Amino acid sequence: MSVIFILILISMVVGGSFLGLFIWASRSGQFDDTVTPSIRMLFDDQKRRRQNEKLK
Amino acid sequence: MREGLSGPSIYLAIRLMYIESDEKVAIQCYHCGDPCENELIRFDAKDFCCGGCKAVYELFQETELKEIYDRRNEFAKRSNQFDFLSNATIADELLYFKSETHNRVKLYLPSIHCSSCIYLLENLHRLDDGVIKVTVNFVKKKADILYKPDRLSLHDLANLLGSIGYAPNFTRADGAKKDRSEGDGGLSIKLGVAAFCFGNIMLLSFPEYLGFDSQLDEKYGVFFSWLNIILALPVLLYSSIDYFKSAIAGLSRRFVNIDVPIVVGIITLFLRSVYEVLSEAGPGYFDSLAGLVFFLLVGKWFQSKTYQNLSFERDYKSYFPLAILKRQGIEEISTPIDLLEKDDTVIIRNGEIIPADGILSSGTAKIDYSFVTGESRPVHVNADQVIYAGGRQLGQRIELKLLKKSSQSYLTNLWNSQAFKEESDGHTKLLVNQISKYFTGVVLTTAILSFTFWAFHDSTMMWQSFTAVLIVACPCALALSAPFTNGNVLRWLGKANLYLKGSDVVERLSIIDTVVFDKTGTLTSSAESRLNYSGYDLSHIECAVVKKMTSNSTHPLSQKIHDSIAADISVELHDFVERPGKGLFAKYGTTSFKLGSAKWVGNDNVDSANQDGVYLSADGKVKGVYRFQNAYRDGLSQLTKKLGAYKMVILSGDNDRERENLTGIFGDKVEMKFNQSPEDKMNYIAELKNEGKSVMMLGDGLNDAGALKRSDIGLAVTEDIAAFSPACDGILLGSKLTYLSRFLRYLNIARNIVVASFIISFAYNIVGISLAVSGALTPVSAAILMPLSSISVVLFATLSSNYFAKTLNIV
Known about the structure:
CATH superfamily of the largest domain in chain B: HAD superfamily/HAD-like
Largest sheet of chain B: 7 strands, mixed
CATH class of the largest domain in chain B: Alpha Beta
Largest interface: A-B, 26 and 27 residues
Order of helices and strands of chain A: HH
CATH topology of the largest domain in chain B: Rossmann fold
Number of strands of chain B: 28
Structural class of chain A: mainly alpha
Number of domains of chain A: 1
Structural class of chain B: alpha+beta
Number of strands of chain A: 0
Distance between the termini of chain B: 27 Å
Helix content of chain A: over 70%
Oligomer: heterodimer
Strand content of chain B: 15-25%
Strand content of chain A: under 5%
Strand order of the largest sheet of chain B: 16-28-27-26-17-24-25
Shape of chain A: elongated
């Protein structure tokens, strides 16, 4: 049962790395603007469709 | 669907630029610029390559987006708009990052309004290879542009943006390089850390809730407890740091704010828990500690979600230009506004804003003071007359000799007054902070009483019950009531087009007892003005003549007159002449008609106060005059009745010729003051406050800025939320002014909801404290009681404020 010590420590490391990722994402400004990316992602679709049309 | 369709449309702007230089190709699609090879659709006298492009074009015609087709050429006319950017010191001020090969600048582009804009701007590198990358923030209407300074200067960049219809807006506030640190001051990170620690501590405490029974489990217990201490440290030292700061700041001003009992609770929780772990007496209260901080931060985060696209802090600087042309000998040099001195001669071009008070050197000027007074009709100024800072010149360029520095002008002087330097003391008046004084006292007394009680009866219990009282009485629920209620009210009011600066404004707004209105632009609507004709009655023919004459002119007044006349017959005119700034002339048959200023029609004997208006004469005989009158908003008299409980005042910068009109609408209960200068308005508000009134000021222009700032609540009334409004606590859409009584009722109810939430949290506290005093508080009961009280308060506050928002129909 003492494996539980190791397991808990590993889970802490895993959880902690997610926390670290969150802090990094937050610091690098990924949550500053949540509106524009939602619009921007639609443009890529447009471009691809145009290319597909040209291929046809 | 619209986003999906309008994407390719942007190709137009990009493609057309390329194609213009190309030699002749097949017929181009009006929309996307591709050659129409397979298919050709004619629609609205334009060619389209496919049904899709036609559909998008139609869509554009329905909305204001069609401007994108027209704008490209329009810009060339006034491309000297950004000349000041050639001045290296001004340009460098604006840059965020500067190097040999990369420059970075953040520009405010007010024209951003749809997904196509983002698409076009982010493809700017295709238009000009000096641009490296553009990132648009749609909500803030800002573009973060990375460009190569050796290929493209800031001046060229501004002109490039202008040529595709996105002229950047530079203001003096940009020059100050403010706004560098964006974001919420790490609140989301603090919240994230607290959430992580809270979750893990809960998991590790879970076995404890069920109870350890065997020797083996004890080993885990010690291990878990130590892990909990480690996990609680970031919560204590990082996540809750703002509460410590605020409590210390409060105490240093000899004021017990709500953060003081919170901090006492946090410290007690931590110390007692560490003691219990070290003495192996128990697992401690780390779960409650982390949960407490987590819930508090959630409340704070909820509260901080306000309108980031609106600016409530603007002063005259964010609205004056960065630089203006100054005459030096025969040269004209762009000069930053701050460097302008008395007696300098400056040149103001069409559409530019007067930076400082000055005397018009020659010619006539037409100044639009609508930013200052809310009055949309331009004022004519003759040579040697004074023009005040803040006006906007319409028409040809003028020269001004400055009388004062920009910061000392009539209007800007307002910002030098005391009201703008004092920090508001609104914070200490908040309900929660007033309660916290007594709350802290009661809690401390209870803790000490129970300590003394147990000291005589069972000395092992005395520290335990003392700390337990401090822990359980920690005003988590109390601290959450106001943020959640007010935050929710803020959102509801936002849906109703009243945008408040922050949730503390909600509370301050609920206790006002005096409402002060500005007249022009606030009670009247600058968007609609009523046209009145007075004079001899006009025949059918004469009406038709006026309609025909005005149809030939693009002057806004002509168009308004044109629209107001319903003539059913059409007449032929000849010898039509339009003299800018004077009027129109035309002949019908043998009769010559003149329409324009009093002078133009030859009517010299009107007194100067009555000169405004458009005069009509036939063969030199004055027929009558068209006057524009700002229309009062509908529903004002009902509003007055509903606001009967409040003291109401109208402050107007105009003379008192509107007094009768206003009395007709507002009744005689309302106090009216006329001929008020910006300072007068501000001082009057200060007087009201000295009388102990809690004042709300509603105004619109920069001349109300002092009064807005001085009052307890300053609301800027505007026709367009995105347009300029002076520093204020909230922005109200003009058409919703008549909803004011409903808003105020809702705010009163909101205050009662906060009080009711306080009572709920007190009830929990009484249960908790009685457990604590009797020494029966276990970690498990604390861990249940605290989140339970927080969650029930949050639910109550949110649901009830939603309920009342719906029943009162505030939206």
